[in-house]
């Protein structure tokens, strides 16, 4: 197959916000306990954090990290997780049918974030709690005042405020699985009131209101309209969440998941802008795509879910998906979709970070390793700088059951005006065919060096596992050539690639 691409610095979509490369740590399964925190591990630091995991988190290149949930947050009492450890209660976590020991809470997590160099994005509980709880945790986290919660933080050994800028107003409040889920009207009222109250403490906070928990929800669209109509002036972002998996073995549609993500983002943008017009507002709402990934959710629902009334394990193995080469290609294509909407999606979180549907896996007392999905994320985070560029693409199509005809190739480019560096991110969705791609770079003037990296494997189901942690890795794509103002590259079937020009 052949495909042609033209890239041009004049076709700028918008600046790439570093927050696009965020992730998510929920108190869920072994994400926190036996994931980032394992005090008995050989690599643990003085606070019990695994330094091998910290090294991988830094290498992954994650900006903002959403915490502490997720579904977990809708039953969470933040104050359980601060102060002397011996006084912290063990609690039922209804979201994941587990026991929460509260060994890790806000202060410890903030300290871990400092070590890995990421920013905290904090979700408040609007499921079983509300305005007062949000105000209390905001005071505890951010203020220097001589008042009860701020003093408590100082007494707990954290004299400096955590200065959390981004706050999520609850989590997936449209979902019947969510503790305290509600109608759009009910949620809009509590979210708007909470936002307004939080701004009475600090008007400069960046607040994220919950959008639908997925575009498949029956209330999708209407939820966004109602919630934004009632909260528009109080919030900065609306959230999007999307997870993808092959349904009934339909790999062609799975590889085209970014088509769904594109449509989802564009629908939410349209709805937000419709509300903007209705309100004659000058303000534009941004999107926080604060949960996205490949997730074999059917496996959790059908196999792993704990329901027994007497069984509430600590840090059970939940949602520990093992990711294949094909899954990584889909993750790479979802990053292309996010970059394509960089003008409106200015924050995003790969859900999640460690062990739970994660790019990083750990074994208690044992090694940590990179899943296949680690690579497109870390390379995109490292290379996508400056402006995202709209590309002109001429690609053959293939038929999918879900989306109809879909381009075999998908692509986006980025251009760092400061350094002159250009990157092109590419996927070949064909299950069987190589693609010979030619890229017209004439709009860029002088380009000296050209190189390419590709993630692909003759076995698209190959994965990195405890037994074989380095089975899959990206490799240099030696087919890349430049002749004058044309770059050519061969894209293997089911592959993700990054081409850099500089
Ligand atoms: O990331 C796993 C779960 O997916 C989150 O807790 C929830 O918000 C979503 O449904």
From TrEMBL:
Residues 290-495 form the Alpha-L-arabinofuranosidase C-terminal domain. It comes from the Bacteria. It catalyses: Hydrolysis of terminal non-reducing alpha-L-arabinofuranoside residues in alpha-L-arabinosides. One of its GO terms (biological process) is L-arabinose metabolic process. Its EC number is 3.2.1.55. InterPro entries: Alpha-L-AF_C, ASD1_cat, GH, Glyco_hydro_b. GO terms for molecular function: alpha-L-arabinofuranosidase activity. Keywords: Carbohydrate metabolism, Glycosidase, Hydrolase. It is an enzyme of class 3 (hydrolase). Gene3D superfamilies: Glycosidases, Golgi alpha-mannosidase II. PANTHER family: ALPHA-L-ARABINOFURANOSIDASE C, ALPHA-L-ARABINOFURANOSIDASE C-RELATED. Belongs to the glycosyl hydrolase 51 family. Homohexamer; trimer of dimers. This is non-reducing end alpha-L-arabinofuranosidase.
